[in-house]
Write a structure and sequence with these properties.
The structure is a homodimer.
Chain A: E1 9-14, E2 18-23, E3 28-32, H1 33-39, E4 64-69, E5 74-78, E6 83-86, H2 88-95, E7 114-116, H3 125-137, E8 139-143, H4 150-155, E9 169-172, E10 187-190, E11 202-209, E12 218-222, H5 223-233, H6 235-243, E13 246-252, E14 262-268, E15 271-273, E16 279-282, H7 296-314, E17 319-322, E18 329-333, E19 337-341, E20 352-358, H8 360-374
Parallel strand pairs in A: 7-8
Antiparallel strand pairs in A: 1-2, 2-3, 4-5, 5-6, 8-18, 9-20, 10-19, 11-18, 11-20, 12-17, 12-19, 13-14, 15-16
């Protein structure tokens, strides 16, 4: 027989609109009438999609008329004749604020956790560790990925997200590039697809062939670290970059395989915050920034903040750099970290990287299921929602 | 020779931080030093992704030292030696606030625009009209769609978005349903995938085989209309539903083709607003709502607002209803309208609908390109960003 749910509960009391549960350790938890009715009945599978009830049927003046603690749980009576069985510990757990996501900001000196593709069997403990590393640092390194295995690596993350670039985009130097990644230019660290409502999520940058000479070094910067530096050093700049909505635009007429012309537009702040004021994502790519709609004084504040942010992104303070070898893949959270590269000699080099992306929510879903197996109790821990705000 | 850009400009004046342009019609437009430098030079292709400049290189104390109107345009001098050529009319256009998106809310009595699949050739004027109808009303009807043509119809919208349900999901009555759509139950109007960071976008509900007896009627409700009713009738309820972040959860262990177990979670308000306080999207599905983290007083306000919203969604005031015939497809914006159905007799019926979805930004991109051809001048008109907030 399982332990009675009332163990450790000292007393219950009610008003017409709430239930108080006093625990033996002195904690008192207060549940609201509607909230209790909607969330806590023991006899309804609240998680079931097949639950057909709706709050539409509740009377506006619903009242609690009494509560009683028996040997098993708390019974709550309402004035419409319903009596619910409530688990006091579940109530307490649900009313306890969630912890912050376990994201650890990093700067220069950071080395991402490295994984061997041969050991990344689906559902293995290494698979779990890879997804934890991505959630924590927004960046991991995988070695031993064969040229044709980009999608196999992506399958460990979730379903590939097809875009107007196709499922996997081959970044190769082209004499007539239609996107800067096909040039030999240096690229400042940026996030991809800021002009999409939901930009690329967890992305894979997989090296098939490196640049022959010097240059073409990959650069990764943790946007979370840059944002937290700014919050500390220049709170006004931080506030501006979390509130001014920046339009990002991408208009392209050159033909791309599997797509046509595009004219994508999205508006979002550079730094996205979650409901608790924590940094949940970054959206930053100067090349696709449109004209911000602010008056001249606000423009001064916005640009001074943006300049400070852009200088930090380009500095050595935050950057992790690596010449990727064939078979190496960086797996990174495109809604938190920025990626770039140094310029290289295009003419004499056939640098070839493959790019592929998976929606972040699907990756987080996989992580929660793997936590159920390998890190029980942490599966409901919060994960950052990204730059969708 | 093109018309000089200075026509209709009366005078220019500067301070160290701004440029004023006075037009012949009396309008004065003020541009900020950084904003001008970043957005308005005539000699740089601002829209080009290949522009390599960064605001990181601008000095914090950049100053305008003078401006002059010549026969052609405005010349602006800065104290770092740079002189930009600025188009005064472009400056004026960029500093004029954008119009509101042309979304028209609707309620009972609405009939969606109907399109014949045979006439929907790619890039045709009918193709343009279909996308305009979706942007305006978030709902259109297409007839004559053969059973195998679901993806062909989707291709008019953009690349199919593959999810854990696959590319196209067949909604057929199953004796052991793993999702309520496979049951014969009535489904209250809801938006799909509220537990995803970026829920399904423009979706297609394509009827292959209708229910044999009574029931199985499709119901569509305009969430924008419900939200605007609430804003008018109960501003406090509207405010609560735009600010309280609701967790949506989906945990499923039953196997689905091409996917595994999922545990998806996302948190968002029921009503999403854009930067100007306009309703940009709706996220509402009671079956997948988790426990809201609010104190007991706020819970009262939240639930009273939610109950009012849920009652409106279920009422006859807002609903458009239709028994879909074979070959009919509803194309709807899942981030604005809610869809549901009446219950039907499962045992004696092989009701078969196909469901497929495309990201909203890709659909809006197509619409902008078609506007360039069929509705010149409107291609930059704003489109609603959806429920991603």
């Amino acid at each position: 027989m399982s332990q009675p749910r009332r163990v450790g509960v000292r007393a219950v009391a009610t008003t017409r609109t709430s239930l108080d549960v006093e625990f033996a350790d002195g904690v008192v938890v207060r549940g609201n009438r509607f909230w209790l009715r909607d969330n806590c009945p023991l006899d309804v599978d609240r998680a079931s999609l097949f639950r057909g009830t709706s709050v539409a049927s509740l009377p506006d003046d619903l009242a609690i008329v009494g509560a009683e603690l028996d040997d098993e749980c708390v019974h709550v009576w309402y004035d419409d004749g319903v009596c619910d069985r409530v688990d006091p510990w579940e109530l307490r757990a649900r009313l306890t604020p969630m912890a912050a996501p376990g994201c650890v900001p990093w700067s220069a000196g950071f080395e991402p956790t490295c994984f061997d593709a041969a050991r990344l069997a689906p559902e293995s403990i290494e698979h779990h560790a890879l997804l934890e590393a991505i959630a924590r640092s927004a960046c991991a390194l995988v070695t031993g990925v064969a040229a044709h295995e980009t999608e196999a690596l992506a399958a460990l993350l979730g379903p590939v997200r097809e875009t107007d670039f196709g499922r996997v985009f081959d970044i190769v130097h082209e004499p007539q590039p239609f996107t800067p990644s096909q040039s030999a230019d240096a690229l400042d660290p940026h996030t991809d697809d800021p002009y999409r409502y939901s930009p690329a999520g967890i992305s894979i940058l997989h090296c098939v062939e490196p640049s022959a000479g010097t240059g073409g070094e990959s650069i990764i910067v943790d946007g979370l670290a840059v944002a937290e530096m700014l919050r500390e050093a220049d709170p006004e700049a931080f506030e501006v970059l979390t509130s001014v909505r920046v339009p990002f635009v991408h208009r392209r007429s050159e033909p791309v395989e599997r797509a046509g012309d595009v004219h994508l537009r999205a508006e979002a702040p550079i730094i996205a915050l979650d409901g608790s004021g924590r940094v949940s994502g970054i959206r930053f790519h100067e090349r696709s920034m449109g004209a911000v709609a602010v008056d001249t004084d606000e423009a001064d504040r916005f640009y001074l903040a943006l300049m400070r942010f852009a200088r930090a992104v380009r500095s050595d303070t935050f950057a992790w750099r690596r010449y990727l070898a064939p078979g190496e893949a960086i797996v990174y959270d495109n809604q938190r970290v920025l990626h770039g590269r140094s310029g290289f000699e295009g003419a004499q080099t056939r640098r070839h990287l493959r790019l592929c992306t998976v929606d972040r929510d699907q990756v987080h879903s996989r992580l929660r299921r793997l936590r159920e197996r390998y890190a029980t109790g942490t599966e409901a821990d919060p994960l950052p929602a990204g730059n969708l705000s």
